[in-house]
Amino acid sequence: MSTWVLGITGGIGSGKSTVARRFAELGIHRVDADQAARWVVEPGRPALQRIVERFGTHLLQDNGQLDRAALRQLIFADPPQRQWLEQLLHPLIAAEISQALAKAQSPYAILESPLLVESGQLRMTQRLLVVDSPEALQIERTMQRDGAAREQVQAIMAAQAAREERLRHAHEVICNDRDLSWLDQQVRQLHAFYLNLRGGQT
């Protein structure tokens, strides 16, 4: 039986990574688009060279790694620069993701990505699960997790797809505003449901 792909997305601080980890613990092959995004800008990869040529060596840390936080700050304030970066990175990230998904041995695989809808990665999936949370909760969680300022979190949220847009594409939605045991139960129910799907279709 061929493996189909479940996309998991949600705004920053929604808990999508927690949900994806729960599926992985149930034996489901998990691909994290953020990891692919980190891998394509590793030292020695062509994308890093292009970024340094455009923005300067001050974006490199002492060990030669990209200072992702500095780059994020730079492009969030400048939409044309963000567009340039996305045009460079999105095809490279998509290629990495495809290779990682091709290794799946489980009945279905997960592609976890914060930019699933807006990056075009949705085309690589057969079904979409959106992890949703009240906005105030997203902001609090992210500030706690990253030590980020409220304004910075709000800027990141503004750059991600609008909640309505994500929900419009969703096949299933988990509203993650309760405790972890409740979340675990939701994942187990969905997992049982997904195991009975052929190609991600009911």
TrEMBL record:
Record pathway: Cofactor biosynthesis; coenzyme A biosynthesis; CoA from (R)-pantothenate: step 5/5
Keywords annotated in UniProt: ATP-binding, Coenzyme A biosynthesis, Cytoplasm, Kinase, Nucleotide-binding, Transferase
HAMAP family: Dephospho_CoA_kinase
Gene for this chain: coaE
Chain positions recorded as ATP binding sites: 13-18
CDD domains: DPCK (cd02022)
Biological function: Catalyzes the phosphorylation of the 3'-hydroxyl group of dephosphocoenzyme A to form coenzyme A.
GO molecular function ontology, one term from the record: kinase activity
PANTHER family registered for this protein in UniProt: BIFUNCTIONAL COENZYME A SYNTHASE-RELATED (PTHR10695:SF46), DEPHOSPHO-COA KINASE-RELATED (PTHR10695)
Protein name per the record: Dephospho-CoA kinase
InterPro entries in UniProt: Depp_CoAkinase, P-loop_NTPase
Reaction it catalyzes: 3'-dephospho-CoA + ATP = ADP + CoA + H(+)
Keyword Nucleotide-binding carried by entry: yes
SUPFAM superfamilies: P-loop containing nucleoside triphosphate hydrolases
